[in-house]
Amino acid sequence: MNTKEVIIIGGGPAGIEAAYNLANNSCKVKIFEKSSQIGGHIKNTGKLFPNFQESNEIREQFSKKIKHENIELYANSEIEELYKKDNLWHAKNTDGVIYTGNAALLATGFRTFDAKYKEELGYGIYNDVITTIELEEMIISGKILTSEGKIPQRIALLNCVGSRDEKVGNHYCSRVCCINAVKQTIEIKELLPDAEVFCFYMDIRMSGQFYEELYRRSQEEFNVNYIRGRISEASQTRDNRIQIKAEDTLSRLPLKMTVDILVLMIGIESSDSTTELAKQNEINGEYGFAKSISLHYADN
To answer: Residue of 2, 48, 173, 191 with fewest CB within 10 Å of its CB?
Structure first.
């Protein structure tokens, strides 16, 4: 058989793992990553769930894998056009250079929901309303502090911000927010054992092996409080704390609470590259994501 050449767009975990497996099966692989570093969103993460493995260890493994003799990495190379011609796939980057291959794989990752669209929650308005990304940065640094440099005594996390939300047009579940919230509640308690931590949720979706055990551990060992309900409003108090209004949907009672930090667990949206390249190849699905192969053939 002739050696197959494969174009992979995206140098995150999915792209690298796919490239490594293809390379081990005698394919020549070109990976195109628009940033200067591989790893995708993992490079902004300290530890990974469910075993709290250091993300640096995973990134080191990725660095070794892309050194495979059948893999060629093109960093700082963004693909703006992808099309099939003369039985070959053509990928053109923003500099106008065209690369060809026998097959192409979209591994263009995701972006996170812009919490400013949920104005009622106060992100971008009140300093101590932050997102899970900003909390992760604090955890990595080993210091969780309010905007005034104080150690927080009470922290609330809110799930499903930008997911399962008709108001913003995202009806789907992002899948990773619940387990990430559980991971971060444990990390908060490890850094601040005396802090009260509350996690608001619609329902907890722990869809992986060992995830349910981690959820139970967060309650039994770290005393994390889980409240079934949505926060409807956040505002700032005179002493610069955050007051939240919610409903405990289990007790069917309204709830008002003052916290030092409110963390918004923002959902996942399709990346701009995914949306654009999927449209070019008529595989665009709902919410800007690429259509799965089963739905693609079902429509035809």
So the answer is: 2
